[in-house]
Amino acid sequence: MKTNKENSPKLLISFRDIQEISDQNFKYFDICDLKDPEKGSIGAWEEKNILEVIKRSKQRVKVSATIGDIFSAEGIINKLKQFDSLGLDYIKFGINTENVLELRDLIYRIGKFTFRTKLVLVVFVDKNSILKIVEENLEIFYQNNVRFLILDTYKKSNDNLTTFCKPFEIKDFINKCSVKKINVGLAGRLQANHIIKLKLLNPYVIGFRSAICSDLNRKFLSEKKLIFLSSQFFSNKSNAIESAGA
Question: What is the set of domains in the chain, with CATH numbers?
Fold first, then answer.
């Protein structure tokens, strides 16, 4: 059960459909992430089901949702506007370009609108130089109301976030983002054995899907694994080590 300190990393759990979510499981995590991997790396849920989860959560957890594998500036903005009316806490969208001008144009265009929901840019660390481009343009994100980034993997293979980014590289990125008042989340086929090391880096949130599944294809949620992961994430041991490394 959650016993996290206020400034400690939050636990995000991704769910692929509404059947996976039971009201009793809300006590095991901070953020309920709605993402359908059958529809893409950041596949979107149907709007009616998103609304049902928001209603059922009853302020017990925050709710985030992905807009889908939409990568055109116009498509992203239209979907952000649509999702902004749902009552979510976070909306996640991704980029799939190595063109710095396209990235800057998208962020500037987003900044022209006022969104009530916190916007989270998903940065795919296995997509060549995207992370580097984002890092070199951090100054534009906060100014245009994109104040949350999450490092993730696009291809859900056996590789995970730490395959592409070493802990010291992640920490350096988090520090640079902190200077710009940008929060950073970590995800990408992470497992329970990553918890302690990644919490020491003090990200805003750490997200899991594979670690709570009973199969390698990430299709079937295991409540037993969810409870175990939560106990590891919020354990006194983990918190003590985190404090020592702060």
Answer: 10-245 (3.20.20.70)
